Each structure stands twice: as structure tokens, then as C-alpha cells.
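User: Predict the complex with DQA.
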Amino acid sequence: KHILLVNGPNLNMLGKREPAVYGHHTLADIEQNLAKQAASLGLSLESVQSNSEAELIERIHAAFQQVDFIIINPAAFTHQSVALRDAILAVDIPFIEVHISNVHKREAFRHHSYFSDVAQGVICGLGIAGYSYALQSAHEFLSKAE
Ligand code: DQA
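Assistant: Here is the predicted structure with DQA placed in the model:
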């Protein structure tokens, strides 16, 4: 089974970006940890990060019938992008939404997500461990689906 990890805008700045909110780990740390975990679960994992909405949409389109599960942190697009929501609905791939910070503790504009009502589940506020919990959960979901 093939998993796609999608990270949205500004997440390439993890480690440097607002460390009090997002911690000191880098995106490379997250991607490497998840690739190792995936391998140990017998899954293949591909990672993409982009600051461009169009690029993320196109990457999700390319996942059509190629990817079994998506783990996505849409970052600021969470609160903005109907187009990215529509892309993930179009390919009809189950997904988990992850946020490093607890968006509900933060500004009101972060409380609404264009993804949560169509996600398998949502993980937020647990730091980068959230990605790992999402992968574990994706593995369980895919094992049951078999
Ligand atoms: C984020 C939360 C979003 O509100 C923010 O725009 C991000 C990161 C998180 O992982 O906590 O860029 O998705």
C-alpha cells in the first residue's frame, strides 16, 4: 500500500519558523521518521511539500488510483482553500488531517477547516508526533479495508 504525505505552505520553514509554536524539528526530520515508520509497517511513503496551491492540487490529482491513503497538513490552506478540498474529494482517497499546533487554542480564523468534515480523522496539537499517529492509524485503516 502506498501513502502520500502532503505538507502545505511554510512547512519547509519548520525548525526556523515560530519554534515556540511549531518546535525545533525540521520537515526533513518528519519525512525521514515517517519513511522509516512506513517501511517498518510494510508501507511505501512518498512526501511532497509545496508553497503553491496549484502544485499541491496537481500532486493530489496525480495520486488518483495511485495512492491508497493521504496524510495531509494543509497548513494555511486549511482555512482558505476550497480548491484543495475539492481536489482531495475528486480523487476520493481517504485522508487524515494533521496540524502540529492546537489550532483551536489559536486565532479564531484557524478554528475552521475546509477538510475536517470530509477527513477520516483530524489530529492537532500533538506536535510532530501527530504525523506518526496518523500513519499508524492509516495502517490500521488499510489493514481493515483489505
Ligand atoms: C498548521 C496550523 C495552521 O493554522 C498554520 O497556518 C500552519 C500550520 C499546523 O501544523 O499547526 O501553517 O497547519
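Helices lie at 19-22, 27-40, 53-62, 82-91, 129-145.
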